[in-house]
Specification:
mainly alpha; two-stranded antiparallel ribbon; 2% strand
Length: 256
Amino acid sequence: DISFCIPFFEDLIRVFPPAARQPDASGNLPLQLAIQHLVSCRCGMRVLTELIPAYPESAWQEDQQGCMPFAQIVTAGYPPDQLEIFLLLFPNSLECFPVHLALEQLQRSSTASIEPGAMKVLLDKYPTAPVDFDNNGSLPLHIAAVTAKDAQTVRFLIERNPAALGTYNNCLLPLHLAIKNSAPASVVKELIESGPAAVSVLLQDGSTCLHLLCKYGSSSFLRAADCKDIMTTLLAAFPDLSLIHISEPTRPRLIS
């Protein structure tokens, strides 16, 4: 417990705000160090709420591992009311995609998470994010299909932009990305149930979602029961899926 240090820390920031801008010998800013060591600490929020206003732009500066403080804080598991306080402190950035960054952080760290209520707070703060493409041509749903750990995150994004279900990124729909990257069964099922039309799409090589599941599911971290669950949901959405063979390379198209 370092709570006894907090008054001293607060006085230091108030007396000498430029200290928040000074990196250490390894190039880490105070905010980045605080996130690494205090984000799960009981008094961590008090430290962060002092550091962010002292140097708001540090929220968008990558640390040595390429992580941005903004994304790390958003995915630290803070409840919605605390996350809302943080979001009020963060400056807007014309060069960054906040929701995209937060979703990408879920893949960077096994402990990263966004509570459903916190995801709603994030989308309320950045209402246009679900329809914004980042520099890689990805919508948030494309990223969430790969990184989300629960169906609720995906559901929030679909509600804000249903058209994303039929939007390609590198010739793949969100459903294809989820299956190819071994997303949890709950995420894949949510994508199928929300956009069943994607099940009947042939990719450039003529493969379907079922082909992808057979190819990547067997060599992934998915449990056999999850693979079976996904396969059952796919076939329920399009019973003739198992009769389709991989054809000659072609443009993605609906199965007639």
